[in-house]
Amino acid sequence: MANQVEDRLTEELLPLLKQEHFVTLSTIDYEHGGPNVNAISWLYAVDEKAIRFSVDNRSRIIENIKKQSRAALTLIGAGSTYSISGRALILEEQMKDVPLKLALVELTVEEVRDVMFYGSRITAEPKYEKTYDREAAEKLDNQVMTAIKRE
Predict the structure, then answer these.
(1) Out of the domains of life, which is the source (predicted)?
(2) What pTM does this model have?
(3) Proportion of the chain above pLDDT 70, given as a percent
C-alpha cells in the first residue's frame, strides 16, 4: 500500500483492528492547539469505515475531541506503519457494564496512509503486557471489548 491513500481500512488492516491492539491516538490539544499523542489498546473496527475505542472519560483525549473532532490512529502492523485519520465522535461519556469511568468513541475513517519510510518494512510488531493483576486485567479487557463491540 506504499504511497497509496485509501478512504477506508483495507482487507489486511481490518482483521488487526478487530481485536485489542497497540496503537497511538493523536488529537489536537484543546488548550494549546498542538498535537497530543496517547497509546491505547481498547479498540475495535466495526467495519472498514468505523473504529471504536475506549478511554478514561476524564482523560485529555475526551476534552480534545469535544473541542476538535479531527484525530488519527497510528497502527504498526501488516509489515508497515499506517496513519488512519478522520473525525472522532463521543458515543457514550460513560460506558455501561464497565466498572471504570470509560468513554466510547468512534472514529469515522476518512483516510488511510502507509507512512513507513522508503525501502523498509516492519519485521516485528509492538508487544505489551498488562502490569497489574493478570486475572483482573483479563476480566476488564473482556468487559470493555464486549461493550465496544455492542450496538
Answers:
(1) Bacteria
(2) 0.93
(3) 97
